[in-house]
Known about the structure:
The structure holds two protein chains of two kinds. Chain A is 3% helix and 39% strand. Chain A has one helix and 14 strands; from the N terminus they run E-E-E-H-E-E-E-E-E-E-E-E-E-E-E. In chain A, strands 1, 3, 6, 7, 8, 9, 12, 13 and 14 form a nine-stranded mixed sheet that branches. A five-stranded antiparallel sheet of chain A has the order 2-4-5-11-10, with no helix packed on it. The two termini of chain A are 28 Å apart. Chain B is globular. In chain B, a hairpin with a 2-residue loop joins strand 3 and strand 4 (72-73). A four-stranded mixed sheet of chain B has the order 12-1-14-13. The chains are: A mainly beta, B alpha+beta.
Amino acid sequence: MTAETSVRIVAARPAGHDAGSFGPFGSGWAAAEAVEAALQPTPLDAQPSAYVQTAWANRRHGVTPSARVAAAVAGGVLRVRVQWAASSPRPAITDNNVFADACALLFPLDGKQAELMTMGDADHPVRAWHWRAGTPDPFVLTATGLGTTSRQAMPHGVAVEAEWHAGEWAVVFSGAPEAAGASSVPMGVAIWQGATEERGGLAAHTPAWITLELPR
Amino acid sequence: MATVNSKPTRQLAMVFDLNKCLGCQSCTIACKTLWTDAPGMESMWWNIVNTLPGQGTPRGAFTHGGGYKDGKPVPGTFPSLREYGEAWDFDHQATFGDGERIPLHPRNRDGSTPEWGPNWDEDMGGGEYPNSFFFYLQQICANCSKPACLEACPREGLYRREEDGIILIDEERCHGYRFCAEACPYKRIYFNPQRAIAQKCISCYPRLEAGVAPACVRQCPGRVRHIDYMDNLEGHPYKLVKEWKVALPLRPDFGTEPNVFYVPPLAPSAFNESGEFDDSRNRIPEGYMRELFGPAVDDALETISREREKVARGEQSELMDILISRDWNDLMGPFTQNPAQLSRPVPEK
């Protein structure tokens, strides 16, 4: 079981802001408290590929040290914004050896039992809302362990907006996690930096579930 | 991962005779028109034929890592699109229109002039006159018995068919990570940017299942390519690889145990400084042959030379009969079905 960190994201319910002000760099976010969540690289020795373990033994991955996370309910919709530094953005896959920046919000489907570091296991699945720069449609990942992810289309009502500005990505996920209705939701954040060729299991992520508190 | 990389019950194998290739690219075009004319596949050439010595396709074809050394994976890179060669545009109107005739020349997508492409150094070759030489090297996916591509994928996106050892990419499972392309030492895996997945030669398995030889085999006017299951003791691959030992894997030092084998080119003797044949030296340097095909190439070339001489003396040679294959169907093992005689389903509109 993954320990829960003390990081708590409290979703604001700001008054006087319309939904349009909650774009990636919208003014509405000023009313939501952003929390800096530390990230760490995914464990290399857990990668289910001897090639990946060997090829990356002397390379850095999971280079994003932290992400700034904020949440707000606006227009009746929960929005989670993730921001991280990306001085060399990769906004699209433009060549064989170019990898796009990406971000995911992860949710355990069994409360907090699933292991975040290994993307859950057969009995404790993890679901992720996944955005990849340059890919028109974000998608949902369901995993029961490393290397097991399957993709599905985003459920109706879930949307993603993203923008890179001044050395930073801001990605806003809008929609209701499956545990909606609860007062809080365990959530993880994962970031892939295309500049360092991060992909698949090579990412930076919160070392444990963080808590997303939802307004009543 | 045993489920995707278990040993097949039969192994399909091919032998390419480098002494017979014309460099006509019929195989290349047969493959291209059949499999890689969809959006996102414009720059893919699952079958390539390159002039050797040369840089190959992609540029520096065998220098990008991958494969195994001492049983361990060797880190590799995936060359850029331009190192493979983009799908070029040609301004036919500028050349054939009513205005000033501008010679036809290719352009990259951004309008720039290409600096590399498939068989870019076609006319180069190696050696110095009068000992210059060249030959053509055909490459497809070799369905390796120790497939670095398959073993590199962290999500079992590739699998080996139990019935014939053909390695395929599961396009539903592939997430476009491209570790497979880095790990393949022959760089025979491509990336489809529109679908964000890896794609490669599929050995024409739908044809094989209908008893039809792969397009590259059947379309070859030089009768270069032999195909059969390796467990057929009368089949050409078994005869050439196991019995006569004249067909060898390309770059065996890569450690992936490919199932495409090559009959090495037997060049004429070199000229000496007096302009006379020096029968002690092959015009293609032995060191170059060993680099490509390993130390077994010396015996293979000697065997081919010996059997050629037998035929020249009017004697019979099973090896030469196999390599010549007077009956075209003999090249194709059990895959002699004429595709024109098959009924084809009408595509749904």
